[in-house]
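ZP: hey, is the adenosine-5'-triphosphate complex queued? I don't see it on the tracker
AM: it wasn't, my bad. submitting now with these inputs:
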Amino acid sequence: MTSLSSGTPARAEAQATGALGRAVVEVRGLRMNYGTTEVLRGVDLTVRRGEVVALLGPNGAGKTTTIEILEGFRRRSDGEVSVLGTDPDRGDERWRARLGVVLQSWRDHARWRVRELVDHFGRFYAPYSEEGRTRPADTDRLLEVLGLTEHAGKRVEDLSGGQRRRVDVALGVVGRPELLFLDEPTAGLDPRARRDFHELIHRLVDEEDTTVLLTTHDLDEAEKLADRILILAGGRIVADGSAEQLTALVERESEVAWTVDGARHLHTTGSPARHVAELYRVHGDAVANLRVTRPSLEEVYLDMVRHHESGAAERAAAEFGKEIR
Ligand SMILES: Nc1ncnc2c1ncn2[C@@H]1O[C@H](COP(=O)(O)OP(=O)(O)OP(=O)(O)O)[C@@H](O)[C@H]1O
């Protein structure tokens, strides 16, 4: 397998030295207002070295706003933010060189040829090499890893959407970032390109010791890609855990519905089997129309999104938070 650098995979090395797990992003009480509209109302989150974290939330939840603040592109209204040990509002060029950024849509550079463009971007990073991390990445090797070798001589404007997206990624990682921000990375990619992209992200994490924070409104993508999912809704993080943890928490709350003597009943419980046994002990054969439903993470999430889009964001977020805690 082609890698961006030679030698021992960086993640294994970091694991050996105990460097994995240190916080690279710390956010406490982050608030953001656009005029009188409060978009972020006290976001707390942590991203640790070596993690792939997905910031998941419905359209307009404030995902882009959050990562733009972390990238130093946008000034926050309030709160504490530290990215690679620095407040992004005061980040200098050396700090910036340690970050990789892939924006939602990149419409510039249409007339550049792929190889020239990646090479050109890479040169900016040359003064910022560090021990164990020579910058930039080798352009040809990077193009190969991203499946762009055969398109290296083409103009960006002549590429397909998926190929362009890969160029965006090349520009985001040519500086061999310690921390990579990806905003909706697979929007517009077909399933094959999406799968390739997921592989690429895992390879970056394993071989380059890159920590990744990505935004998506696709739960499936978050489940496939991320070690940890943060759900942003109503201006706050309402859930934080691995896909398995979130699923387990959701499944704890099952709905038991039944009728006794024609009267309908509904009960939410973490132990449906015990509840059903108790029902039969008390009512015996009078129990009818028994139904036990375990909502999936997706159902609960989509329900929250529907509420959010119908304007009941605050309530939906609170309910969702309650449901999975
Ligand atoms: N520059 C701005 N001025 C005023 N309002 C803004 C600005 N940028 C974003 N907003 C508003 O802030 C809210 C959050 O936007 P943001 O783009 O951060 O959400 P998002 O979760 O990334 O959404 P999407 O999934 O659609 O990309 C939206 O209601 C948006 O209209």
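AM: back. The pocket of adenosine-5'-triphosphate is lined by residues 34, 39, 57, 59-65, 217 (CB under 6 Å).
ZP: great, adding it to the tracker
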